[in-house]
Protein 1
Amino acid sequence: MRRVRVLIVGAALTASTMAVPLVTHAGATTTLDPGVKGCDVLLTAPVGHDCLLPWPNNAFTVASNETSTGRQLAVSSTVDPTNVKGVHVSTTYINRGDGFSPGSVILTYVPNLDLVASHIASSTDIGSSLDLNAPIVLLDTVTGTRIPYFAELDAQTTNTAEQLLLIHPAVALTEAYRYVVVLRDLVDNSGHSIAPLASTTAAWSATSKSSTRLQYISQVLHKDAASVIGSTEPYMAWDFTVASEKSLAGPAVTMHKLAYKWLAKHHLAYHKKMAIPETDYAPVFTVTSSTTINGVRDVHGTFQVPLFLQDTTPFSAMTVDRSGHPVINGTKTWTANFICVLPSTISLSGPALPTVYGHGLLGSATEVEGSSFSVALTHNLAGCATDWVGMSASDVPNVERNLNDMSTFNTQVDHMLQGFVNFQFLGRLINSPAGFASNPAFQNGSGKALFQVGKCTFMGYSQGGIMGGAVSAVSTEWARVILGVPGMDYGGLLLNRSVDWNEFSSIYDKAYTDPVDQQVVLQLGQLLWDRGENDGYAEHLTSNPYPGIRAKQVFIIENYGDHQVANVSAEMLARTIGARNHQPALNPSFFGQTPRTNVPVVVQWGLSKLNQTKAAKAGLVLWDYGTPTPPTTDLAPNGSAYGADPHGDGRGNASLLTQITTFLTTGVIPDVCGGQACQSSTP
C-alpha cells in the first residue's frame, strides 16, 4: 500500500511515496501491548482527569489481527468525560476505528510549565520545533523523521491548575503510522527544571516489573526514542498509532461505489432509450422553477440519491451491515435540492464553465445566488449548489443536540457522508448529457446547453472549503478544486480559534463545564469528524488517490487574520497536500502602514515557492486585506483589536477572480500581484 511520507529538508516539506510493511508501522508485533483498561498509569493530571491523558495514546487501544494498523481503539465509556447530566460520551462508534486522528491534538498535563523558558515552539515559530534540542519531539517511527508542530497552553481557561499542554502537528500525521511523543528539559514558571515523572523514571531504569504499561514505555524510551533523546532521561514519553485509510475514508469510498452501482441499476431502462452509455447515466431530477433576470438564469429543483441513512430526519444514523459498513437503505431515496445560476446566453467565448459550489457554515444552497458567486457569473462561470447535508441550516437541531451530549455526534457525521454522495450526483448532473443539459431550463433558445457539459469543477468557501477537500478526494466528477478560506481539523484547530464558535460554545460549555473535559471531548469527536472533513482525506487529495479516483489540482485561497477559519489550519492543509505558495507570502506592512506585531518568523513555514506560469498540483495564495495578526493561542480574534473580519473578503477583488478563473480553465494560478505580497483594499 502506498503512503505519503513527510521529509524534512531545511524549512521545506516535500511528499513522496513508499511501501510500508504492516508489522513495522503497526508496532503490534514488536512491542508489548499496553494492557491498560481505560486509564494510563503514566501521568499526574488535574484532579479527576487521570484517564484519557495523555492523548492520543496506544494505552487506549488493543492489539488486533483484523485491522490495517494492528490496533483497535478501546476507549472506555466508563471513564471518559460526562456532561452535566452525568452521561459519559459513548465510544461505540469511536471504537470501530483502528487508530487516532491524523490531526490529533496531543494533550498532556505538565504542572507549572513555562513555555518560553522551556523554548517550546509557538505558532509563530514552527521551524524551531525541529531544532536538535527541541524540548518536545514528535517522532515518526516508520521513517525515523521528526514531525514539525507548535504547542501552547490551553487559553480557554486561565486556571493554571487545569491548563493542558496542547501540541499541534503542523502537517497531518500519516495514516497507519506509529508515533512517539517525548517531553524533555522542561522548565517551570519559577525557573526550575522539571523532574521526570516517577513513572518515566521507573520505565527508564526498568525497575518496575509489575506494570505491563511501564515495561511497554521502557521499550518506547530505549528503542524508539533513543535516537533523539540519547542517554538523558526525559520528563515523559508515550506512543500512538494513526488510523488507516480504510478506517478514515472507508465509509465514504464504499458509499461512492455503491451509489454509482445503484445509479446504473435503477436507471438502465430510462437511459437505454436515450442511447446514453452507462458511464454517463444521470440521476433523475426535476426542475421546479426557472427564472431569468438581468441575464442570469436561476434554476431550482430536486434530484434523487440513494439513501444510506435509516431515515431522512436530521437525527438518523447510517444504515450498516453486520460488519458496520454503510449500505443503501432498500429502495428509499434522498430527495436532494439544487440551485443553479448561470449566464442566460452563450458568450462569444463559448458556454459557461460549470462548478459545484459548497456553501458556508450551517448555510444552504441559496448561497450560490448571493454575492459569494455573483461576480463569478460575469466571468462566464456557472454554479450549482445543494445543501451540505449534516452541516446545513436544516441540521441545526441535531447540532444543538450533539453539543449537549456528544454521544450522538455520529449522526451528524453520517449525514455529512450522505451529503458527499449528494454532491457527487450533482456533479454527474452537470457532466452527463442526460443531466441538466437535456432540460430546456439549462439551454438557450436553440436547445444548446448554456454550460460546458462534462467539464465540472469544484469551488467551496469556508465550510465548503473545510469539507470540500474531503468530497473532492472521493470524487470522480471533477479534477480542479478551489478551496476558499479553508482549513482542517475541526476539533483541534478550528473551533476554539473561530469567532463562530462563540455561539456554539455557549451550549457546549454548559454541557461540558470542565476545561479539560472540553478539550478531551473535542478530540473524541474528531475521531468521527475525520470522516466528514479534510482531516481524514487530505493525504489522498493531490497524490496517492483512492483506487479508481484521480488526483486533484487544488488552489487554496487564504485571507490573513481570518476570524472564522484560522490561518494555522489552512496552512496545515497546504503542507499536507504538498502545496507550494505565492512568495513573498506577506508584507507585514499594509500599504505603508505600521508593521503588524506577532507575525510568524517565517510566514507559511514549510512551503516552497509556487511556479505561477505552469499548471499547479496544489498552490496557496495568501491575500491581505489589512487585518491585524490573530491571537497566537487557541483563542478567537474577538474584539476591536483584531479589526474587521476578512473571512468573506475577495468577492470584489478582480485580481483574485482572475486567479480563480484562470486556474479553473488552465490549472495555472497566475501571479497577479507583480511579484509582491498580495494585498488588496477592495474586499
Note: The longest helix spans residues 409-431.
Protein 2
Amino acid sequence: MHWIEYPLFLLIVVGLAGPVGRYLARVCERQPTFLDPILRPVESALYWLFGVDPEEEMSAVLYIICFLLFGVCCTIVLFLILMFQRWLPGGPADAYLTTPMTADLAANTAVSFTTTTTWQAYGGESTLRYLAQVFGLVAQSFLAGAAGLAVGFAFIRGIARERSATLGNFWVDLIRSLLWVILPLALVGSAILIWQGVPLNMTAYISVHTLEGGTQILPQGPVAALEFIKNLGTNGGGFFNANGAHPYANPTPLTNFVGLLAIAVLPASLIITFGYMARRQRAGWTLLIVMIALFILGLVVCNWAEISPPPQLAGLHIVGGNMEGKEVRFGVGESVLTAIVTSNTSTGSYNSMHDSYQPVGVLVPLFFMLLGEVVFGGLGAGVYSIVIAALVGVFLGGLMVGRTPVYLGKKISSGETRWMALYALLTPMVVLGLTAIAVATNAGRAGLVTNSGARGFTEILFAHASCMANNGLTMAGLNANSLFYDGTTVIAMLAGRYGLATLALALAGRLAAQRRLPSSLGSLPNDTPTFGALVFGTILLGGALCFFPALALGPIVEFFRQ
C-alpha cells in the first residue's frame, strides 16, 4: 500500500507546485488575486493601524533588523504568557498540570515557537492551559510562519532584481503572507480536521471507565486550532505529548496525508516562485527536481530499514517490519513517509517514536536535518537553503571547468563567496560544538535516561541538529527539560533561525545590487540535468565532509554492531 502512497504524495506536491508557486509570486509582487476583494480592506486597515507605508522599501540591513525585532517582541510576549498562564481562566484543571512551567522551560518554549522549531521539552496536556495554547502557541505558529515566508520573498527578490538597493518591506511581506496565504489555508485545513474528528472545544478533561474496569482521563481542548497550522507554518510540535500519534490530533490516514501535504506544498511551490520571479522557470524546476531526488533517496533507504524485520528478532518469524513505536493504524509506510517529510522541513511533527527506529532509519532523518533545509525546507528557509547550495555548486563547478561562476546572471565574486561559506559552516560549527559539550559534561550526559553508547550519542546529536534546523523532532530518549538542554537547544534554535536568515538576506542584498550579466559561452548553464546533478552531488558531498565522523560515532557504528 505504501508504494502507492509514496508516488501519489509526490505527484500531488509536484502538481500543486506550479499553480501555487505562481500564486505566491502574485502575493509577493502585490499583483491582483481572487482574494483581493475580501483582503485588500483588511490589509489597508492593518497598514494604518501599525503605521506602515506599503510603498516604502527596505535595504537588506533594515529588513534584517525588522525581522530580528519582530522575533524578539514575539518571544517576549510568548514568554510572559507562559510564565503567567496560571492566572488565565479556563481549563484544564490545575490537578492535571503536573509539569511546572519554570523560567528556563518558558524561555526555551518561547524561543522554540517563535523560531518555528517547536521543540517541546514538556507534554502539552500536562503543562499548558487552553488559552496559553491558543493565544501563545497557535498565534505564534501563524506569526512565525508568516515571518519566515516574508524572508523567503525578500531573498527571491535579491536574485530577481538588478541594480536595486532594497529587498522589499518586511511588514508588508509579513501582512500579505499572513492574510493571503497562511490564514485562508489554515481555516480550510482546520475545518477538514474537525470534520475528521479532531476536537475544538474548551471542555474539561473527561474521566471514563474502560472495558477492563479501570479509569482513563481523556484530555480535551482546542486541538484543531493548533494541529493544522503547526504543519502549514512548518512549525511542528503538538497539542499532546504524543503529537501526531495521538488519535485526537491525527485520527485518520486522511488527516495524516493532508497534514503532510500542508507541510510540503508551500515550500516546494516557493522554488517555482523563485524561478518565475527570476524569469528562469527551468532553473526553479531544476532545483525542485534535485529536492525530489534527495527526498526519494531518503524515502527508499528509510523504508528499507524499517520494513525489514529487526535483526534482534531474527528467528522469531516476525513479519511486517519494525512496528516498535509505530501506530498500527499508520503502519510502517505512513510512519516512514511522515518521518522523511518532517525531517526535510522545519516541521517537527511525528506520528511514531524515532527512538524505536533502526539505526539506518534514524540516520536518514538525522542526515537530512544536518544538511539544512535543502529538501522542501521551511517557509522561506527552504528556498534560500537550496539556492545557496546551488551557488556553492556554481562556484565549485566553475573552478573545475574553468567557467565564470555566474548564477542566473549574477556573478559569484569573493564577497558573495564569504557569505556562502559562513552560511555553509554555521550549522556544523553550532551542532557539532554543542554536541561535543553535551557528551563531555555530566550535565549533558545526565539527559540520557534511556540509552547510552552509540544510541545515546545519536540522541544528543539528533536533538541539536533538530533545533539548528528549526525542526523540533526528537528521539524521545533524551530528557531535555533541564537547565543545560534548555540553554543549548536555545542557542541552536536562534542560530538556525536568525543566524542563517541574516546571512541569506545579506547575500541577497549583494546580489540585488548587481547588474544581471547576459549568458555567454563562458557561463555555466543553471537549468540543465548536468547542473542538477552538480547541485545534488554538492549537497551530499558537503554533508558527508562535515558530518560523517559524527554519524560514524552514532547510527553507523550502531548498525554494524547489531
Note: The longest strand covers residues 206-209.
Protein 3
Amino acid sequence: MIRRSLRYAEELSEALQRQLATAYRSKDLLAWGLRQRLREGYTVKDFRADLLSALVVGVVALPLSMALAIASGVEPQRGLYTAIVAGITVSLLGGTRYQVTGPTAAFVVILVPIVTKFGVAGLLVAGFIAGVILVIMGLARFGKLMQFVPHPVTTGFTMGIAVVIGLLQLKDALGVSVGFPKTEGTFEYLGALWDLRGSINYWEVGIAVFTIAGLVLLPRVLRAVPAPLVALTGAALLVVLLYQVAPDSWHFHVMTIGDRFSYPLGGGQMGHGIPPLPPMPVLPWHETSTLHEVPFTLDFHTIRELLPAGFAIAMLGAIESLMAAVVADGMSGTRHEPNSELIALGIANILCPFFGGIAATGALARTATNIRAGARSPFSATMHSVFVLACTIALAPLVSYLPMAALAGLLIVVARNMSEARHFVRLLRIAPRHDVMVMLTCFVLTVVFDMVIAVTVGVVLAALLFMRRMSVLTNVELETESSLKVEVPAGVRVYELAGPLFFGAAKSAMEAIHTVGDKKDHTYILDMQHVPTMDATGLVALESVLDRLRRSKIKVIFSGLRPEVGEMFERAGIKREPGKVAYAPDVETAISMAIVHAARELSSPVQAPHA
C-alpha cells in the first residue's frame, strides 16, 4: 500500500513538473482565456447569451460593489470603479472564460485597518503594491503552486473573514455610530457597540431584518430575478414611503447613502450620494476622502510599512481568484491558465488605484452567477463592467436613497454564505488534530488581529504542513529477501529510499541507515528508484552517511538513480570509487556487484603476501 501510494505521488509530481515546464515555455500568457475561446469561434448567438448574463451579473454586482466599498471604509463609488476597471482588464487579459473580477468580501478585513492608519491614499498604494507582487508571481509561474495551500488554512481564513464582516455590519444594522470599526481590535469594537446599546435605532434594525429576509426567502420564489435587486429596491421604496406617511411621533429616521456620503461639485458646493461620473484618472497618493482625513506622504518609510499589507492583499487575492477559477472549471467543464490569471489580476490591481478603485480579485458568487446565466465567453464579464459603468452614470441620483441598514443586511447574508459554517464544524470533528489546530489558528488570528498577520502566519503554516506531509512520505526501509524476491547474500544490506529527499525529511530519513550493524557487513545497497528529487539538504545528509560508511569500510552501491538525482550526484563529485562507491541500474545487478566485491575482499588477504 505504501509503495503504491509513493508511486502515485511520484507520478503526480512528474505530471506537475511537466505542466510547469509547459507553462514556463509558454510566451502567450496574456489574454489566454479569450484567445482559447475565440479559436472555437464566436457567433451572434454567443454575443446575445453573453449580453443577457452580463445584465444579470451586473444587477448583482452593482449594490454589492458599493456595499463592499462602504464596508472597507471608503466611498461607495470606489467599489463601482473597481468593478469597472478590474472587470474589463481581467476578463480581456486573464486565463479564464467566465471569471468575474471586482471587490470581494475577503478583502474587507485587510482594507479596513489600512484605511484607518494610512487613509484612502495608503489603501490605493497598498493595492498597487499587491498588483506588482501578483504580476511577479504570474511571471515566475507560481500559479500552479497556489493549489498547495492546505485546505485548513483557507477554511480558517474564510470562516474568520465571514465572522469579521458580519460583526462590522452591526453598527449600520443597529443604527449606532461607533466611529470607524476595527481601529483597535474586534473586542474593543464589540465593547463600543455594547456601550451604545441604549441608542439602537430600531427602524434601522427593521430595515436590516427586512432586507435579510428578502435575500434569504426570495431565491426560493423568484429564481429568474436577482434577489438583491428586489430586496434592496424594496427596502429603499419602504424608506421613502415611511418618510412620507410616518407621523412625527414615530421619530422615523434611517441613514441612507445620500445622508452618509458626499462629493465636491465645485464652487464649494457638495453633492450627496455618488458622483454621476465614470472613473477618472487620478494619482493614488494624492487621493483624499471626506470620511477619513489621514495625512499621507509617499516615501520609502511609508512603502516599507505598506509592504506587508500589499503582500497580504496579493496572497489572499491569488488564493481566492484561483479557487474561484477552479470552481468555474468544475461548473463549466473548461480549464484555466493560473499564471495568466495572476498576471491579469496584477495588472488590474495596478490600474485600479489610478482610477480611484480599491483592491480586486475573482468573485466566486458573481462568477457562478455568470455561468448559471448562460455566459459563453470572457466578453460577458467585460459587458457586466460596462453595465455597471452605465448604471454609475445614469442611476447615481437614485443610489442615494439606498438605506445603509439594507446594505449591511446584504453583507451579513454574504458573510453567512461564504462562511460555510457546517463545513467548518464538520472539519473540527473529522480532521486530524494538526489540521484542526492550523484551521483554528488562522481563524483566531483573522478575527482577533488582522489579515496581514493571519496571511503571514497562514503561509508559514501551509509550508510547515506541506513539509510535514512530505516528510511522512519520505522513508528508508531495510529490505528483506521476502520483499525483494531475490536472495541477499550475507554481509549485504539493501535499503530502499522512497520519497523526495528535501530539507523537511532528509535528516530523519538518513538516520534510518545504520552504520553500526553486523561486523560482517561489507556492502550497503541504496535503492533510490523511488526518489524523484533531492535538494541541497538531502545531498548533505547523504554525503554524511557516505563518510560514516567509508570510515566503517563499507562499500555503497546506488541502484536505480533517477536522471535528476544522478546529475546532482555528478555535480557534487560523488563518483565511482573502486571498493567504495558504485552504481547499478537495479537492485539485482547491485547484489551481483556486491557478491563480486565480497569475493575480492576474501581473496585479497591470500594474495597480499605474494604481492
Note: The radius of gyration is 31 Å.
Protein 4
Amino acid sequence: MKFEFSGVEGYAEDWAYNSPGTRARTVTFFAGQYTGTGSAGQDGAVSQSFSSFNIELAEREVVIKNAFIIFETQLMGMSTTDGNVSGHVITFDADTCPGTCAGDAWGSGKVSDDQSATVLQYEDTTGGAYVRILVDVSSEIQLAAYTGAGGTGNYLSAAVGYWFKAVTTNASLINSAKAKLVITYTYDDASNSISNTVVYPLESNNATPTPDDSGSRQDSQTTDCSVDSNCPIFEYKTNIPEFSQKTSQWFEVGSFNDGNSANDVKHGINIQENNASSSFILEAAEGSGQGNWSEGWYSGVSGFSENTYQELEYYFTGSSQYLMGGEAYETYTASASDTRTRTVSYPIGVLTNGSVITGNSASASVYFAETGVSIKKAWFRILIAGQDTDAAYYETISSKVGDIAESSNWVYDFNPPGTVMVESFKIFHVISSASGEYGELAAATATSPKVVTLIATHYNANIRGLSAELMITYTYTDEDYGYLSSHQLFAGQSATAGNDTSEALTTANSVLPESTDAKTIRAAALKASYSVSCSTSNNAMSTAVVNVDADLSASGCANAFDGDSDGANSFFEFYKNVTSGMTVYDGRSYSACYTNDGASTANEGAKMNGILIYTYQLDLRPPSDPNLIRIKGNTRIKGGTRLNLEDSTEAI
C-alpha cells in the first residue's frame, strides 16, 4: 500500500511503503518412522500408524492452501512368497488443541488415499520393493479450518496411518516406513510471530582424500564400525539466530551398501558427547547381491542443540558403506521482527540423461531481494539414477560461483552390486567457501544475479542420469525491498497399478498470494519418483534401462532420462527443471505428465508421482518518484498526528 502526502517530519526514506499484505510459507513436520527388527516387520492387512505429532503455525489469519504427506516404505524384503502388494491405504487425521488431544489416524475424522483394490507393486523374485507415496490431505476438516496460533498457542495434534496388503503372505510385509507432512499456507504479513523450516547439510570431517570432504563422505567405510572409535563423523551447525521455540526437528541420513548379500544393514546416528542412539534397518533377507541407498529419518535425537557446532556420529553394521551423508531439518517459531533465516531451493534439473560422461553441467542464476544477506551454507542435492554392472565407480563433482574460479574436483566413490532396489544414489555436495564463494554469492541482488554452476563427470557410461537441486540457507536483516519465497506443492500421485507407463496428473493450485504484481519465478522443478515393477507371469523385470520423463509442458513428456531396473523392482527419482512452464499467477493448477517406457518391455511400468518445487521473488521497490516517501516506525506528520505504521496498514 502506498502512502502519498507531503510535509512529513521524522525519519523517512525516499519511497513509499508497499506492503505485500498476505504472503505465503511452506513448512515441514516429521510425521513418524518405523523400522523392523531384522527378523520381523509389521504385518500387512493390519491398520498401522505412527505416534501423533503436533502442528503449530505461529502466524495469524492462516489459510491452508496445500498439505500433503510424503510416505516411503520398504515392502516384501523378508520373503519371496508375499505375492503382489495388491493394495494400500494412507490416512491422516488432525485434532484441535490446546487440551488433551491426539490425532487418530484411523478415526472418523480422517482423510485417506484408499487404493486398497489397486496393485501397488508386483512381486519380483529377486528382491523386495521400495515405494514413495504422496497423499494430498488439504481437505482434512480440522487442518483446513486451522487459522494459526496467532499468539494464542493453538495447535493441532496429527497422526498418519498406513495399510498394505499382499496377495499371498502378509506376515512381516512392511520392513520400514516413514513420513513427513508438508504444509503451504498464507498468512497476514503483520503477524508478530512466524513459523519456519530450515535445512542444513551434514559435513563429513574425513581428512582424506584431497580436497577434504565437503558434505557426503568421498571414501567408503569398510564393514562395520565401533561407536566412539572409527565410525564416520559429520559436523553441522543449525544456525538460527532468531530461534524461539522448536516445533519439529529431525535428521535425514543415509548411505549406499555393497556386498551385504542376505545380511541386513543396520545404521543409526548419535550426537557426540551424548551417545543415545537411533537406528534404522535395511532388510536384506532375500539376498541376491542386493545393495541399496537406505536412509533413516531420525527425530528426537538426544543432545541436539540450535546455534551450536555439533558432531553427529554415523554407525552401521553389514557391508561397506558409500556416499554417507544427509541433512538436518528444523521447524520452529520466531519473532517476525528479528534477523531471520531462510532456506531456498534453486533446482537446476538434469545435467545428463546418462548418455554423456563428461561435460555435464547446469547452472542456477541466484537472486536475493532481501538486504543484509549472509550465506550460512550452500550445497547441491545430487541424484544419480543407477548403473548396470557390479563394479567400482565414482562421480567427479566441482562447482563455480559467480566470478570465482571453478573449484577443485571432489571424487565420490560407490560400488553397487548387480541388483539394486533403490537406484537413486544421493550426494550432498557443500559448496566450499575457501576462495570467497559465500561472499560472492551474498553479493547477488534483486536485479543482478550470481550464476552458480555444478559440473559432474561420470566414471563411465554405466552410470545413468544425474540431476540436482541447489539449496541455500542464509540470514538477512530486512525484507523492505522484497524477498524470496520457496515452496513445495503436491503435484500428483498415480492411482493406477504399479506398471503404468503414462499419467497426466493435476498439481495443487500454485501459491503466490502477494497483492503486488512484481513477482518473478526464479526456479522451478518437478521432483518425480518411479517405483518400477512388472506384471508378467513371473513378474521378472527385464535388465533394460527404464527411460522416464516428467514435465509441465503443454507438449507433454518425452522419455529421455535414463533410470534403471537391473532386472528387479526398483525405485528412482530425478529433478526436471520446469521453470519456463510456471507463471506468477496465484491459484493456478498445472497438468503434470509422468511417463516411462517400461524398459521397452510389455507389462512393465511404475507407480509415479511428483512434488512441484519453486522459488519466486517479490519486489517491493516502487518506480522512482521523488514525490513518494516511505514512512517507517513512529513518524510525526505535520499537524500533530502520530502513526505507528509497523502495526497499521491504514492509508493516509
Note: The chain has two domains: 19-189, 190-619.
